[in-house]
Design goal:
Blueprint lengths: L1 E5 L3 H10 L2 E5 L2 H7 L3 H12 L4 E5 L5 H15 L3 E6 L2 H12 L3 E7 L2 H9 L4 E4 L1 H5 L4 H14 L5 E4 L5 H10 L3 E4 L3 H6 L2 H17 L9
Parallel strand pairs: 1-2, 1-8, 2-3, 3-4, 4-5, 5-6, 6-7, 7-8
The structure holds SN-glycerol-3-phosphate (G3P).
């Protein structure tokens, strides 16, 4: 499973990338609206931080196929580089997905809450599907949803990647990795939770105690 950053804040994204091995950034209208700025400036500042090779996922706002395709082309053109346009998993989104794939534009079908939405998205040519794990937990089992999508994709040899989104805890993250999620997107603050463990801190403290009982700290480093 590979990691993406669910954020539109360039400073936060830059900080995560300093430490964590991520493949790019996902945004959605809610995440963009939190920045309260001009869309173009926000998208440009993210691209400047991540470069052209990393994935950037950005969502349309139109609610019909024609408008979605127009939004998608404008976004893809403006963002440039390795870009995926997010479309909602509904009939207009499916139609727009098929149009965009004819034009060679990358597509992520988002707000996926059922295996059938994921199967239809894959048949429409989507590059990614984004099941909302924690949100689905309110009415069902988000991890099971990811597992069922993975099983269906494997059964029919479908190449669409599962990009799991919406998480509240580390256990859900590990569970979707085991269930076969190809990618996951998490807000910046979540990354600290993934790497931190009290036993690691304890082990490091033990090494320090043992080492400095025998050796002195040198400004030149270890060797
Ligand atoms: O990328 C999807 C995500 O932003 C929605 O998740 O955290 O609102 O449940 P959340």
């Amino acid at each position: 499973m590979k990691y993406l950053i669910d954020s539109a804040n360039a400073a936060d994204i830059k900080k995560v990338l300093e430490y964590f091995p991520c493949e790019g950034v996902t945004t959605n209208p809610t995440i963009i609206s939190r920045e309260k700025g001009d869309l173009k400036n926000i998208l440009k500042s993210i691209r400047n931080v991540i470069g052209d090779d990393m994935q950037m996922h950005a969502q349309v706002m139109a609610d019909d196929c024609y408008g979605m395709v127009e939004d998608a082309k404008a976004l893809a053109d403006f963002i440039g580089g390795n870009v995926y346009i997010k479309l909602p998993a509904n009939p207009e989104g499916l139609k727009a997905c098929r149009e965009l794939k004819k034009e060679g534009i990358g597509v992520t079908m988002t707000a996926i809450f059922s295996p059938q939405q994921a199967l239809l998205a894959a048949r429409a040519g989507a590059d990614f599907v984004a099941p909302y794990v924690n949100k689905y937990d309110d009415v069902g089992d988000g991890v099971r949803l990811v597992g069922e999508i993975a099983q269906i994709y494997a059964q029919f040899g479908l190449e669409t990647k599962i990009l799991s989104a919406s998480f509240r805890n580390v256990e859900q993250v590990t569970s979707v990795a085991l269930a076969g999620s190809d990618f996951i997107t998490l807000p910046p603050a979540f990354y600290e939770k993934l790497i931190w463990h009290p036993m690691t801190d304890l082990a490091v403290k033990g090494f320090e105690k043992d080492w400095y009982t025998v050796y002195e700290k040198s400004p030149k480093g270890l060797i």
